[in-house]
Amino acid sequence: MALTLTRALEAVLDGEDAEALRRATARLIEVYRSGAPPEEQALRDPVSAAAYAAYRMPATHAAVSRVLRYAMEVAPDLAPRSLVDVGGGTGAAAWAVAEAFPEVASVEVLDASADALSLGARIARNGPPVVAGARWTRADLTVNSLLPQADLATISYVLGELPGDLPDRVVDASVAAAGVVAVVEPGTPRGFAAVHAARERLLGAGWHLVAPCPHEDACPLAAAGDWCHLAVRLDRTALHRRLKGGALGHEDEKVSYVVARREPAALPGGRVLRHPVTRKGMVRLELCRADGTAAAEVVSKRQGPRYRAARHAGWGDRWPPEGTDAAD
Ligand SMILES: C[S@@+](CC[C@H](N)C(=O)[O-])C[C@H]1O[C@@H](n2cnc3c(N)ncnc32)[C@H](O)[C@@H]1O
Fold this sequence. Notes:
The protein has helices spanning 5-13, 18-33, 46-55, 57-74, 92-100, 114-124, 129-132, 166-177, 189-204, 220-223, 238-244, 305-312, and strands at residues 82-86, 106-111, 135-138, 152-156, 180-186, 208-211, 230-235, 250-261, 270-272, 277-279, 282-289, 294-300, 318-319. By secondary structure, the protein is α/β, with parallel strands linked by helices.
């Protein structure tokens, strides 16, 4: 039976030298801190790949899982049968896609790091069958940015690592190769800038947005010098705590993302841009809205179903939720 990613990581990484993993984790944190493309391959040896898997893979997996959930809420007809995971590393996005879409029958993970790929393949042996049977292909996007054909391309925590105009070329290549593209980056101003550039490029190619945007006009947050992101809460694994320390049992992974596809989707009325603020008898929602603007909506108890829906709304959710009688 397939293990959860957390259990699969424990099964594979348990015997690793903890001190070597801690040192490699500290180095990776330093490499990723600036958000700028690393000067050399970050996952350059087996211990760096193991450290990445232990301290980052649960978070990138949780982020991609949430992004896919939001995309499926807007486009319930999404049912990819094949995936190319671009810069897929140890395969976090491939796990998330396999779990979200049972129809997926073929997975290819492309990455420049042989150590990340071979560790990813070992972890995947304990995972969903389609991930266990994935192709793990060594490919340096700086040398060749062409991608194999697939229904879905995931580009997860990769664009920010690529130099010069390579992010643009990789987005163009994904448009040529796939029918749906999911770009995920850290929810920082820099991560958002990469996502926003990808959004503009995907729209420029005549594609349509699925999530998070409720419209295809200019992004009002980018125009205001703000950045669109959300926080995904996940439990810290025992392994993670051993490597990074910290008392909290959870972490909040900040994420910026865009999912787009060739066909239009029925976009929602809005999207929640911050943690909603609840006061006695009212909820204040900061929203991106279908008319292309960002503005607050205060929902009061007098609004009945809309108020009850607002009390359950979370940062990043569509608004109003479909299937409720919360419309105006
Ligand atoms: C931060 S990791 C993300 C890994 C995985 N997608 C995830 O979400 O956990 C960035 C990945 O991009 C890969 N990468 C960086 N530059 C690359 C290039 N020029 N060609 C192919 N892969 C590259 C790295 O080897 C690494 O595995």
